[in-house]
Amino acid sequence: MTTITVDTPHGPARAELHTAEEGRAALLLGHGAGGGVGAPDLVAATRGARAAGVHVALVEQPYRVAGRRAPAPAHQLDTAWLAVAEALCDAWFDDLPLVFGGRSSGGRVACRTSADGQAVAVLCLAFPVHPPGRPDKTRMPELDAVTVPVLVVQGENDPFGMPGAGAHREIAVFPGDHSLRRDATGIATAVEEWLNRILRPLG
């Protein structure tokens, strides 16, 4: 594992790099609003991606690097994310297909930036469809706007809601809630199988 610091317009971000032997693509994963890159589902997804021959960068947003728990505004998160993606491509992942992803808020960032970052796919862990008890405050337009293959890994009892499948969107449902703590092996396997499937046409 290698940890690097990346300058962004909103302060330094950090990326924890977990390389795969084959290195056929790179997966950038962001954390949730109040959590870090050690969340169980992020660890499981990293394991599954590496098993599929995909490098992983666990990206810590500038506000977390600075020691703040409250997330930055969405436009700052997106700008910082794209700056990290560009820096990693230049230094580590040149010419590799990029997959964007993250848990909860990090998944929303991945969706919003997938087009500008030229991601070939998006992985969402515990996507927050709406705030708990507020289905009227839906974030589904962010998911629906993604035009590349999407895998959403969701807990069956997630109080943040359950997204529906779409034209190029798959939903993998696991026991548990928003934390996705209960089936790390299943999550790793689902991510590995999905990445193998979506990357196969890219050679």
TrEMBL record:
InterPro entries with a match to the protein in the record: AB_hydrolase_fold (IPR029058), KANL3/Tex30_Abhydrolase (IPR046879), NSL3/Tex30 (IPR026555)
Annotated GO MF terms: hydrolase activity
Keywords: Hydrolase
Highest taxon of the lineage: Bacteria
SUPFAM superfamilies: alpha/beta-Hydrolases
Repressor in keyword set: no
Residue ranges of every copy of the KANL3/Tex30 alpha/beta hydrolase-like domain listed in the record: 24-163
Keyword Hydrolase recorded: yes
PANTHER family: TESTIS DEVELOPMENT PROTEIN PRTD, TESTIS-EXPRESSED PROTEIN 30
Protein name: Alpha/beta hydrolase
UniProt source species: Actinophytocola gossypii
